[in-house]
Specification:
The chain has 242 residues and is mainly α. The protein has two domains: 5-87, Arc Repressor Mutant, subunit A (Orthogonal Bundle), CATH 1.10.10; 105-241, Four Helix Bundle (Hemerythrin (Met), subunit A). It has helices at 5-8, 10-13, 22-35, 48-55, 59-71, 105-128, 133-148, 152-169, 173-190, 197-216, 219-241; strands spanning 75-78, 84-87. A two-stranded antiparallel sheet has the order 1-2. Helix 6 (105-128) crosses helix 9, helix 7 packs antiparallel against helix 8 and helix 7 (133-148) runs antiparallel to helix 10 (197-216). The protein is globular.
């Protein structure tokens, strides 16, 4: 059986921890992977030894990081047969009535400009790469998952997984890292505005155009379609947040 598309992203999104703040970096990577839907509600984290090796950290550091995720309500650890650490995060809150105000002004412009640079570039590069049958099937499935998502939170997770899948198809680990940062910032911003059904339909159509161009090897069309997609989202965010 073919692995679910979101689980295929684990090995590209989770990378060896950098710098001296190894514990904090480990928590950040795992929490980001959960919030962006790389690991979804009900998924088991990879086995401890495998995950520690993937992140390049000691198993004690990994255990401490997982404990922090438990304290934050993102995972639960179950004992006994069939146990392990299981994701319990079902998706972001949408348009909260209260809470910290997201980035505005220069900070908002910087986040949107950053995304406008990296995501169209990732789409263009993906279209230039030889796409395997598994990657092709994964991109098609990721698009379908966004359309089929039930509820606003599930839709946001499926949407971010699609964008990470496109970045992964580019073959560039640095672009995967950049798109992960862009999607993390975008999720924070989108949680602060209403969900507009007309925009969701436009977004579906744009996703189709992006992936179709990638699968056809049409690099410039893939970049242009992603630019249009980024611009549509930016327009809404600037309108609602300012």
């Amino acid at each position: 059986m073919t692995a679910q598309p979101h689980l295929q992203l684990v090995e590209t999104v989770l990378r060896p921890a950098r710098g001296t703040n190894v514990f904090e970096s480990t928590v950040e990577q795992l929490a980001t992977a959960i919030r962006l839907g790389v690991l979804v509600d009900g998924d088991h984290l990879p086995p401890e030894r495998e995950l520690a090796d993937r992140l390049g950290v000691a198993r004690n550091t990994l255990r401490d990081a997982i404990a922090a995720l438990r304290d934050a309500g993102l995972v639960q650890t179950r004992r006994g047969r069939g146990g392990g650490t299981v994701v319990t995060y079902a998706g972001p809150s949408v348009a909260p009535a209260e809470g910290p105000r997201p980035r505005v002004g220069i900070a908002l412009a910087d986040a949107l400009d950053f995304r406008r640079v990296v995501e169209p570039g990732a789409a263009r590069l993906a279209a230039l790469q030889p796409i395997s049958g598994e990657q092709r099937a994964g991109l098609v499935a990721a698009v379908q998952d966004v359309r089929a998502a039930d509820g606003d939170s599930a839709h946001r997770l499926a949407d971010s997984r699609l964008h990470l899948a496109i970045a992964t198809a580019s073959g560039s680990p640095m672009l995967v890292e950049a798109v992960t940062r862009a999607q993390s910032a975008l999720g924070e911003l989108l949680a602060a505005i209403p969900v507009l059904r007309t925009n969701i339909q436009h977004s579906h159509d744009q996703h189709d155009a992006i992936v179709d161009a990638i699968l056809c090897g049409a690099a410039d069309a893939a970049r242009s379609a992603m630019e249009e997609h980024c611009d549509a989202t930016s327009a809404l965010l600037r309108g609602f947040i300012g």
